[in-house]
């Protein structure tokens, strides 16, 4: 596990949201809008999701309705678009990459459904709408999440690339979603850290596993789908890991600085549940610096691709300059 960014002060967990928002404590970066190409990609991803999801009327319709409700609840599609734009570095035809791209959105959505359950984050609001278990009940929400995870791997298996590439993509995505330095492992550590003082190394592990792992897989899946060689895949894996880490640090910051209306989910939940976050350990100002430093390090990995990676670079900048 890589070392954490150096702290300028002793880590602490005693802050509350109000203290962090006192005058002089806020450190807003300039807001950044999504780049224009993002909407074109989002529409392509949404069309593919529509084709790949079971019809709402197909039996059992109750679970398919819940799956569709959550998938089409208004997400930005950051992970699938990262997949597409990574593939675009190596090929002009990114259509095959829509399969792993959609699979990653299925996995991401399943994780949100389960995160929102009473046993975990116990949230009523997601993307500005009632969470899946509030809309359909806990049993159907659990099953909808299970079904989306299963559908993700079925979708990757249909990717129109040589079989060895498909197997590599499956391995990358499964590892990122799992327990060893993957999303589930990070979620376990996150739950176990609630209400406790955590050191910077544990905080890094949580963020790199819970969030960065799936973003890393989005990048590597796009590269593998487009036929990138081992050196390029390794470079882009480093990019994905680091920008995914920066993304979650920014998420921590926004939970403090933004409203529920802006975020589309309950603001201040991290503080209320005594979650292990960068603002609670390092404070807001240092958290902004860490996010910026990580983004700079990540974007440096794209230098060899020059203009071919211009879109990926824009997305990376957006991930740390967004306000929601």
Query: What is the string of SSEs from the N terminus onward?
Result: HHHHHEEHHHHHHHHHHH
Given helix and strand content, the structural type is mainly alpha
Q: How large is the count of helical segments?
A: 16
Specify the biggest β-sheet.
Answer: 2 strands, antiparallel
Instruction: Kindly state the number of beta strands.
Output: 2
Under CATH, the homologous superfamily reads: Farnesyl Diphosphate Synthase
Short account of what is shown:
By secondary structure, this protein is mostly helical. The protein has helices spanning 17-20, 37-52, 61-71, 78-87, 98-115, 132-136, 138-157, 163-177, 183-193, 200-225, 230-257, 260-263, 269-272, 278-282, 284-300, 310-321; strands spanning 125-126, 129-130.
